[in-house]
Design brief:
This protein is an all-alpha fold. The protein contains 15 helices and no strands. It is globular, with a radius of gyration of 19 Å.
């Protein structure tokens, strides 16, 4: 029940600023809507301060991902490309499905296929993922320089929050829902990471290979045994996010089965078959890239960024490169 409630809060936070919507995420890829970037900057900046101090007080532990160079570079570029084409992240797919987005459902099917294929080809592509430089973060790099570490955490956190406000001014925005959602995401992740709670960060992409492998019976390999704990947790977490969106959309009476969204119609037309094919392809690419990198927007960029992990900032850079380059070509 606790995990389900965390998922519900996650869904409500993203719904509040419409961070799950295709038009919002594709708008980020096209640089016409900076809501996602502003929210992430605030969430990482605020969360870095919260989580660093709660870990320092012994209330939580670090859960950073290793710097696996090939996986981060290739996975980030592939993940960004899938995100641009699909217009969703692994976690926002469940939330948009709760609002009636048909393309999100197709993206989930594509993601399950991508997760299954990754499980099957992992032994062959594993040499591409290295080298593994270990779990590097600001904490490990600073060593025992505690005063300098916390001072730098505050500076980095304040810098990211200031960057979000700078983007907001450049965008000439008037809506500050992104600010509330960013702070709420930081609080949620800090709460989930507590020893008294889940003692782990939030995440979403492991759900896809976990469910796909379970459905197809591909459960004997080493990879399934490695991900089954996280995959089961994320299954319940995303179920909560889905339920939050479904209940809210029904209460607001705005639940609609939708395949073609405004940005897609503007750049790619209204042909249903085209959106169906590209939603599947985008979902496949998205999850395949996420598993190569070992995480996604929520589990890597947000959660890892809040822990000031080197791997997560590297993944974020290559994700945005893949996102922007693909959008420039795909939506030209």
């Amino acid at each position: 029940m606790e995990i389900l409630l965390f998922g519900v809060f996650f869904g409500l936070i993203l719904l509040y600023a419409k961070l799950n919507r295709f038009d919002t995420i594709s708008g980020m890829a096209l640089l016409t809507d900076l809501t996602v970037a502003k929210t992430m900057a605030v969430a990482i900046g605020t969360g870095a301060i919260f989580i660093s101090f709660e870990i320092g007080l012994g209330l939580a532990s670090y859960h950073t991902k290793p710097v696996i160079v090939g996986g981060l570079v290739l996975g980030g570029l592939i993940f960004g490309a899938g995100m641009a084409i699909l217009g969703y992240c692994p976690g926002t797919l469940a939330i948009s499905l709760g609002e009636g987005a048909v393309d999100a459902f197709i993206g989930i099917i594509g993601g399950l296929a991508g997760g299954l294929v990754y499980t099957l080809v992992l032994p062959q592509i594993s040499p591409l993922l290295g080298p593994d430089l270990g779990k590097l973060s600001l904490s490990t790099l600073m060593g025992h320089s505690y005063i300098a570490f916390y001072l730098l955490v505050v500076i980095i956190g304040a810098g990211l929050i200031s960057f979000a406000f700078w983007m907001h001014r450049k965008e000439q925005g008037k809506d500050y829902k992104w600010l509330a959602s960013g702070v709420a995401l930081a609080v949620l992740n800090a709460a989930v990471m507590l020893h008294l709670a889940a003692d782990r960060p939030i995440g979403a992409s492991t759900f896809y290979p976990y469910v796909a492998d379970f459905i197809t019976g591909t459960t004997e390999g080493e990879y399934f045994h490695k991900i089954k704990g996280s995959g089961h947790w994320e299954l319940i977490f995303l179920a909560g996010a889905f339920l939050a969106a479904l209940i809210v959309s029904l209460l607001r009476k705005n639940f609609r089965l939708t395949l073609i969204h405004s940005n897609w119609k503007k750049y790619k037309g209204e042909l249903p078959a085209r959106r169906i094919v590209w939603a599947f392809v985008g979902g496949f690419i998205l999850i395949f890239g996420a598993r190569m990198a070992g995480g996604c927007t929520s589990g890597h960029i947000l959660s890892g960024g809040m822990q000031l992990a080197v791997s997560s900032f590297a993944f974020a850079i290559f994700t945005f490169v893949g996102l922007l380059l693909t959008a420039r070509i795909f939506y030209k």
